[in-house]
Design brief:
- By secondary structure, this protein is mostly helical.
- It contains 26 helices and four strands.
- The chain has helices spanning about 15-25, 50-55, 55-65, 80-95, 105-115, 125-135, 140-150, 160, 165-180, 190-195, 200-210, 215-230, 235, 255-270, 280-295, 300-310, 320-325, 335-355, 365-385, 390-400, 410-420, 430-435, 445-450, 460-480, 485-525, 530-555, and strands at about 10, 35-40, 45, 75.
- The model is unreliable at about 1-15, about 240-245, about 475-485, about 530-540 and about 555-588 (pLDDT under 50).
């Protein structure tokens, strides 16, 4: 007659109590009372020494090496898998059948090694049974190997030492490459979802193994994108601005632990990215960089992402740059330094390519550079409405793209106008600083027409726009008479240079006339109070001023160096100059 086994369990865990009840159902020796209590965590198992010693060399050595004459208590809290796995190992010792599955085979193999239940100690022992299951069942399919590898997360480093991890990685990498080349089911990327449940430590071994087997960069990139979107869902896939709040060091401890885990995970993912930048969607890289900024990852991690985005900046859309620029709630601007470094890196790359190809970067810009210029101008227009955007930050981004890379400055003018409208308290000097990044002579007719009526612009910019239209009308016939497009372009460029020179000369003339007006006004104020001696003394000063004024006007003489140039006529030549010539200077 079999004696009833004595079971003891902790009252703190219902799970442990249930385990003890199950244990009582398979211990059969009721005629022989139990003689050892095995403690595994909070669970206690009352068992028989002779049944355990028959299969476990570890327990045999514990009993032999014990200083107690009759060892009645054994602590096996360090056994891999905990109470549930020890229960199955004990069943094996008692000859009770139980099911080995892909979920528990790794833990059973590790427990067998821990308890030294090997075939060398006893034939057909637990270690041999689990090895047979691994090789014949668990490691024959990708899905099963993934489940086994997932179960190894809590069994390290023993699972690594027993080569369970390496064998799983080998099987998964082989099967994944086969699925990538010859899909066996739909959807074709089903295996990528399977890999998404694994810890990043195992993925870091699978991706290089697949690369060694010849997996294409696009395949590896797709697997990493799927993995990232599943494991950093709240950071990468939440583009609505309603997800994570800004990082706050005063968050609760559990929140800080989560962010620390996400930081390590993101840095590991970035280290696995294939070298081929074109393999990744641009928007995905931008989302990764925003997450890196939010999580405050290492400088190396952020620099790597910035370098990758910079290399393919011509494919970046405005929305992608906006992803980098705003917090997840969409209310505040991030530090714009990342955007600055990305644009600057792209421009430097284009310059180096231009020099390498024997071209002149200043005279000829690639299509990619012109496309980036339009993207940057549109991006400035989007962020210009935010009050925290200073003039230095706005101009700092605008000047990164060379001025000559823009065929027209209409998009930049639009961004400037939005900025001035959103910042109405700027004074004249500050508005001129904002407008300094734009060339008014490169605006289209429609933009110049708008600028001439725009009260937000500084007066100088409005005058430039108006004067340029007048010059265009005046020189239009000359340009139309050119027979070839190249000749027309050369004539336009020459006329533009002449017009710009005239603008500068007119500004100089305006300044001299203003000085003359102020001087005359000063004479009128002080003339009545001064005596004749004062007048005599002042005549020499007036003569000096008018002489200087005459020289300045002479320099601005439109007939200078021509047949009607009077600047170099000698007074002793005897020419009749009693009737002065009428001269007209254009002042705008």
């Amino acid at each position: 007659m079999d004696p009833q086994p004595q079971l003891r369990s902790s009252n703190n865990t219902t799970r442990t109590s249930l385990a003890m009840e199950r244990t009582g159902q398979w211990i059969f020796s009721q005629d022989i009372p139990t003689d050892v209590l095995v403690e595994v965590g909070e669970a206690n198992f009352s068992l028989h020494k002779f049944m355990l010693v028959a299969k476990s060399n570890y327990i045999r050595k514990l009993i032999i090496d014990s200083k107690e004459t009759d060892l009645t208590r054994i602590d096996l809290s360090d056994i891999p898998g905990g109470p549930e796995i020890f229960e199955k190992a004990a069943k094996f010792c008692y000859g009770v059948n139980f099911e080995i599955t892909v979920h528990n085979v790794a833990a059973l193999r590790c427990a067998a090694d821990f308890l030294e239940m090997t075939d060398a100690y006893c034939d057909a022992n637990l270690a041999g049974r689990t090895e047979d299951f691994l090789s014949q069942v668990a490691l024959t399919t990708l899905s099963a190997a993934v489940v086994v590898l997932k179960s190894c997360e809590d069994l390290l480093p023993l699972a690594q030492d027993l080569q369970i991890v390496s064998r799983c990685v080998e099987v998964i990498s082989l099967r994944a490459c086969n699925e990538a080349n010859f899909p066996s089911r739909s959807p074709p990327n089903w295996w990528m979802e399977e890999l998404s449940i694994l810890d990043i430590e195992f993925v870091s071994q699978i991706i290089p193994a697949m690369k060694k087997r010849g997996a294409k960069p696009m395949v590896l990139a797709s697997a990493l994108v799927t993995y990232t979107e599943r494991n950093l869902r709240d950071l990468v896939r939440d583009h609505s601005g309603s997800g994570s709040k800004s990082f706050d060091p005063d968050f609760p401890d559990h929140e800080l632990e989560l962010r620390a885990h996400q930081r390590e995970l993101l840095q590991s993912i970035v280290s696995l990215l294939p070298a081929e930048n074109a393999a990744f969607p641009v928007h995905f890289l931008c989302c990764l960089l925003r997450s890196a900024i939010f999580l405050k990852t290492s400088i190396a991690c952020k620099n790597e992402l910035e370098k990758r985005i910079s290399a393919i900046l011509e494919h970046v859309m405005v929305d992608d740059l906006l992803v980098l620029s705003f917090t997840y709630d969409g209310e505040r601007l991030f530090d714009l330094e990342s955007v600055r470094r990305i644009i600057s890196g792209f421009v430097d790359k284009e310059k180096n390519m231009g020099v390498f190809n024997g071209g002149n970067f200043r005279e000829s810009y690639s299509t990619a550079t012109q496309k980036v210029a339009k993207t940057v101008d549109a991006y400035l227009g989007e962020i210009a409405t935010h009050a925290e955007l200073t003039i230095s930050k706005f101009n700092g981004i605008a000047v990164l793209v060379p001025k000559t890379a823009r065929k027209v400055d209409d998009d930049l003018y639009r961004a400037i106008d939005i900025y001035l409208k959103a910042h109405p308290n700027l004074d004249e000097i500050e508005r001129e600083k904002v407008c300094s990044v734009m060339d008014p002579l490169k605006l289209s007719y429609e933009a110049r027409l708008h600028a001439s009526q725009n009260k937000r612009l500084p007066v100088q910019i409005v005058l430039h726009a108006l004067y340029y239209d007048q010059l265009q009308l005046r020189s239009g016939t000359t340009t139309e008479n050119c027979t070839t497009p190249m000749a027309a372009a050369a004539a336009t460029k020459s006329q533009l240079q002449t017009d710009v020179s005239l603008v500068r000369e007119n500004e100089a003339l305006r300044a001299e006339l203003m000085k003359m007006k102020l001087y005359i006004t000063d004479i009128k104020k002080t003339g009545g109070s001064q005596g004749s001696s004062g007048k005599a003394g002042g005549s020499g000063k007036r003569g000096t001023f008018f002489s200087s004024m005459s020289k300045t006007l002479g320099k601005l003489n439109p007939f200078r160096h021509g047949s009607k140039d009077t600047l170099n006529i000698d007074d002793s030549a005897g020419i009749d100059i009693t009737k002065p010539r009428r001269r007209r200077f254009s002042i705008s």
